[in-house]
Each structure stands twice: as structure tokens, then as C-alpha cells.
Design brief:
77% helix, mainly alpha
Length: 279
């Protein structure tokens, strides 16, 4: 592939990314799930008041509050479209940070499920939680390095048309890795065969942790590179969306209210479930 065609392929890919998965319009779409998941975890399985004597929980609670506040601020700022699309480098960097927060909250959710469901002994569960946290950090570091190297390779050889189209289909090639599915199956099935299904939820959480730690870092890696490209060339900047008609805005408002209400109900049910229901 000639140098010019490689540059064109990469430019086409990242322009497609900027208008699909990496669009500034996704600030709220990524930020709201982070706030909901972390809120549910903080008030549920990781509630410091329910895990008294565990010194790790209070700093973790503080970190979660900071992450939720930052994501909530990002969601709030995303409502000001003129500001968002005028300072695209800044808000693309913010989108990268929210993507990192999404990786964090998904891994934390899986880790909490693996360590604390079926928890009879809190001290033992905390031991598994801390050990799993260190393992997750190691896997995240390795997978992030792998995604950076893969991005570097694709930049040198040129992004394929299939990956470019995948932006519009919201399909990541890394998510189809056969090895990940083998790991998922082994971690989920083997412990349950040996324990007659007693630890199904825990092993499912462990498998989810491996899956999220391996796959999701690709999102902030690509978003970070897109923010860098936007700082170098405005060809990657997005066009500001046109103002919606009044009737369409009313429908969108009703949908937002429905989503917020449904999320609040789901969050409350999750909190009750995690705090009072024990398997």
C-alpha cells in the first residue's frame, strides 16, 4: 500500500470514528452509565457503612464520588452544544477521560460481583477483592499496551475499510477474539463444575473482569489519538448538529425523562438488592 493510500485510509477511519463512536454527542451516552453504575456500587456492594472495619472502602468511596462528579459535569457541559463543538480538542479529551471512567466502573462492577456475592466472610471477600484488583491492574496495563501497539501497527499499514465501516456498526474486531471467549468459558464453567454451581455469579464476575479488562481499553486509546489528531488538523473536527424541530425536541425530552426515571428506579432496586439480598 502506498504512503498516500495509507494516510488516506487512516484519515478516513478517524473521521468516521469522530462522527460515530468518538462523537462529542456521546458525552452523555458514556457519562450517564458511569454515574449509574458507580452510584449503584457505592450504595450497594461497596457501601463503606456495610463494610465497617475495611479501611480500603473509604478511599475507594472518595474516588468513586470524584469520578461520578467529573462524569456528571461532562454530561452537563455536553448540553451546551455551541461550547462543546467550538472547543473540540478539550471536549474530545474529556470524552477520553469518560471512556477511561467507563473502563474503570465496568471492571470494578465485575470485581465486586466476583468478590462479594455469596460473601459469608467479609475479611475473606476483601482479600479476594484486593487480590483481584491488583490482577485487574496488571491485565489492564498489559491490554492497554497491546491496544497501543495494535493502533501503531494499523497506522503504519493503514486502517482497513472493514474497520472503518465497523465504526458505523459499532462493532469492535477485538471483541470477537476467540481467545477471550475461551478464557470466558474456562473461568465461568470450570469453577461451577467443581462446586456444583455454588459460585456461578462469582465466576461470571471474574470472567466479566477479564473480558472488560482486555477489550474496553481500546476505546480510550482510540479516543485519545483522535483528540491528538483534532489538535493537529481541523479536518477531524465534527460539524455542529442542526437544531432539532420543536416536536422532535419534545419527543427527545420525554425520552430523556423516561430514561432518567427508569435509571432512578433501577438504581434503587439495585441498591436494595445489593444491600439486603444475600445468596
Amino acid at each position: 500500500m502506498a504512503t498516500t493510500s495509507i494516510a488516506d485510509a487512516n484519515r478516513t477511519y478517524f473521521r468516521a470514528l469522530a462522527n460515530t463512536r468518538g462523537s462529542l454527542g456521546n458525552l452523555a451516552g458514556l457519562g450517564i452509565p458511569v454515574v449509574i453504575i458507580l452510584g449503584a456500587l457505592t450504595m450497594g456492594m461497596l457501601d463503606p457503612s456495610a463494610l465497617e472495619g475495611q479501611s480500603l472502602m473509604r478511599p475507594l468511596f472518595n474516588v468513586n464520588v470524584v469520578v461520578m462528579a467529573a462524569c456528571a459535569l461532562g454530561v452537563l457541559l455536553s448540553m451546551f452544544k455551541r461550547l462543546t463543538y467550538r472547543f473540540q480538542v478539550l471536549f474530545s479529551t474529556l470524552l477520553t477521560g469518560i471512556a477511561l471512567a467507563l473502563v474503570y466502573c465496568l471492571c470494578l462492577m465485575a470485581l465486586a460481583i466476583a468478590a462479594f456475592l455469596n460473601a459469608g466472610d467479609i475479611a475473606r471477600s476483601m482479600m479476594w477483592f484486593i487480590l483481584g484488583g491488583w490482577i485487574a491492574l496488571a491485565v489492564l496495563a498489559g491490554s492497554t499496551a497491546a491496544h497501543i501497539l495494535m493502533l501503531r501497527h494499523r497506522l503504519r499499514s493503514g486502517h482497513s475499510a472493514k474497520r472503518t465501516v465497523g465504526n458505523y456498526l459499532a462493532i469492535s474486531g477485538s471483541g470477537r477474539s476467540k481467545m477471550l471467549w475461551v478464557i470466558f468459558a474456562v473461568v465461568t464453567v470450570v469453577p461451577n463444575v467443581l462446586t456444583l454451581g455454588q459460585y456461578f455469579a462469582n465466576s461470571l464476575g471474574a470472567a466479566g473482569l477479564v473480558f472488560f479488562a482486555c477489550v474496553t481499553p481500546s476505546l480510550p486509546v482510540e479516543f485519545a489519538y483522535l483528540a491528538y489528531l483534532k489538535s493537529r488538523d481541523r479536518v477531524y473536527w465534527e460539524a455542529r448538529p442542526r437544531r432539532r424541530p420543536l416536536e422532535e425536541r419534545r419527543k427527545l425530552t420525554r425520552k430523556v425523562v423516561l430514561w432518567v426515571t427508569g435509571s432512578a428506579v433501577a438504581l434503587t432496586l439495585f441498591w436494595v438488592f445489593a444491600k439486603y439480598v444475600r445468596f
